[in-house]
Write a structure and sequence with these properties.
With 307 residues, this protein is mainly beta. It folds into two domains: 117 residues, Immunoglobulins (Immunoglobulin-like), CATH 2.60.40.10; 134 residues, CFA/I fimbrial subunit E, pilin domain (Immunoglobulin-like, Sandwich).
Length: 307
């Protein structure tokens, strides 16, 4: 009977693990600070809010990368997208275990005022996400309007008649809902001619009608239009003038002033030039006929006197 011989083999594998691989402490944020001089919104434009970021890693500054994950929380607790909003510059070594970064956060003029929280989480050389840190800044309320047109021209209007309706687009270039105060001046023409400011009627909205329109005045009048902020937040202002019957011919001009108002604050003073041309009065055909008959009558009387 044959015997089977079983041989067991023991294979021992040796390997080494580096001390750094065993330790691999994660980086963490030590500070997020903002340049307070860059936080005020920019009327109708963007503002680069500047910030600084400190990161520490006990494995050494070489383990800190230029990759940082950001989360931005708005005043209402909503998470805002940060793509194309945050720019982070390459970091600088500040100690054997620390790096500092500079960055900018783009804020639009219409973004909600209040406290914003920027949270940062650094990424190490192995792709691991480290400890988070955050900082906050207050985006101030900003009140402002502008007009898309610099002039409201009514063209040529005969005495005693109404002009065509002229329209002015008003834009909210701040970040709060606003109402508008509106005032005007008399229109001054040649030879001391004056068109009273009360000759104007105005109305906000896409349409104009005399029933709902208001009379323009030198004293600012409050118009509660509640123009909310937004990238293209506009409202239409319609204007019409009725000329007096005895106004001298010539070119007349004045000024329309607009003021943004909200929460008892008043800001901005965009003005629009008001112009209207009054043509020379041309006698009506009936008037010409009566004048001609009158002249003929005078000629007949003179002939009789000569005889």
């Amino acid at each position: 009977m044959k015997r089977m011989l079983y041989v067991s083999m023991l294979v021992v594998i040796f390997f080494t693990v580096s001390e750094n691989a065993l330790a691999n402490d994660l980086p963490f944020v030590t500070s997020v600070t903002f340049d307070q001089s860059t936080i005020m919104p920019n009327l109708g434009g963007t503002r680069d809010v500047l910030f600084s970021l400190g990161v520490y890693d006990s494995d050494g500054y070489q383990d800190i990368t230029n990759s940082v994950n950001f989360t931005l929380t708005g005043p209402k607790g909503n998470i805002l997208p940060v793509d194309n909003k945050i720019t982070l510059l390459p970091g600088n070594q500040t100690s054997p275990s620390s790096m500092s970064f500079s960055g900018k956060l783009k804020m639009e003029f219409y973004e909600t005022p209040g406290t914003y929280i920027l949270e940062a989480a650094p990424v190490d050389s192995m792709g691991a996400i480290g400890g988070k840190g955050n900082g906050n800044y207050d985006y101030s309320p900003l009140l402002g309007i502008q007009t898309m047109e610099q002039m409201a021209a009514f063209g040529s209007v005969n005495p005693g008649e109404k002009s065509q309706v002229s329209q002015i687009n008003i834009q909210n270039i701040g970040n709060v809902a606003l109402d508008v105060l509106i005032a005007g001046t008399d229109l001054i023409g040649p030879s001391g001619g004056i068109i009273d400011v009360n000759s104007f009627k105005y109305q906000f909205g896409s349409l104009f009608n005399n029933i709902d329109s208001k009379t323009l005045s030198e004293t600012p009048i409050l118009n509660e239009i509640n123009l909310v902020p937004g990238i293209n937040s506009t409202e239409m202002l319609n204007l019409q003038i009725t000329l007096p019957v005895d106004i001298p011919a010539g070119a007349y001009s004045g000024t329309l002033s607009l003021y943004a108002t909200a929460s008892s604050n008043i800001s901005g003073d965009p003005s629009v030039a008001l112009t209207v041309s009054v043509p020379e009065t041309v006698p009506e055909p009936t008037t010409m006929l009566l004048l001609g008959l009158g002249l003929m009558g005078l000629a007949g009387v003179r002939r009789k006197l000569k005889k």
